[in-house]
Amino acid sequence: MSKPSRIITVANQKGGVGKTTTAINLATALAAIGERALIIDIDPQGNASTGLGIDRQARMTSSYDVLTGAVGIRDAAMETAVPGLSIVPSTLDLLGIEMEISSAPDRVLKLRRALRQAPEGVPYSYVLIDCPPSLNLLTLNAMAAADSVLVPLQCEFFALEGLSQLLETVEQIRSSINPNLSIQGIVLTMFDRRNNLANQVVEDVRAYMGETVYETVIPRNVRVSEAPSYGKPAILYDLKCAGSQAYLQLASEVIRRERRLRAA
Ligand code: ADP
Ligand code: MG
């Protein structure tokens, strides 16, 4: 039997903090070390899908179809150029989903149900859900479906702003529909060590959030930002660059934490 999958939601209601970059590169790193990985792109902008080279015309089935129950996860998943990494892409249909499901009693449980209904489970050891920059119904669906939440925080002045609201939302989901939901960790992104403010932010976030923060810090790296325009994860585009190396290191921390969470 295949190992049960671990479902990790990558969330932060702020845009541009590195959610998609983290989802793509963490999933690629996990696939590179032999884990079968799936990304579910639930951001209508579809940056994870584009960043993995899935053209809009090629998106026959999407996370929209999964949320409406029309298509199962396995059938909606497409292979990517990364061996071992698949994606359920997003389409602009998702823009309408909140309206469509908002009056359904199970509106927060759509994704959870889809992941649980898959016959014989899903053949992935890691499922990463890339969320939109909002605490909307899509993000709530992702939290309701997940084992844990991974929060990217950009190393900038307002890094911690909004974090308490995010953590409260996680707590609400935990106390209502998903009691096993935990925080996987907080990853500091786009760190520039020559910037005094960035150094201060790292210190502050560590002081405030303690061990929740991963040891790995993702540096700001131009190769990481170039990669999506080639439809590739940074790890494929330039394995040796500091950003790719940091994401490989993050993957091993994530795996260590998952083992600990699973054992608990
Ligand atoms: P989000 O999904 O939270 O909106 P993205 O992952 O799309 O954020 O990142 C926002 C922008 O910052 C993108 O243009 C991305 O390429 C860039 N970026 C993300 N991480 C890095 C990094 N480590 N170094 C340089 N640029 C980065
Ligand atoms: Mg994004």
From TrEMBL:
<dbReference type="Pfam" id="PF13614">
    <property type="entry name" value="AAA_31"/>
</dbReference>
<dbReference type="InterPro" id="IPR050678">
    <property type="entry name" value="DNA_Partitioning_ATPase"/>
</dbReference>
<dbReference type="InterPro" id="IPR027417">
    <property type="entry name" value="P-loop_NTPase"/>
</dbReference>
<dbReference type="InterPro" id="IPR025669">
    <property type="entry name" value="AAA_dom"/>
</dbReference>
<protein>
    <submittedName>
        <fullName>ParA family protein</fullName>
    </submittedName>
</protein>
<feature type="domain" description="AAA">
    <location>
        <begin position="6"/>
        <end position="183"/>
    </location>
</feature>
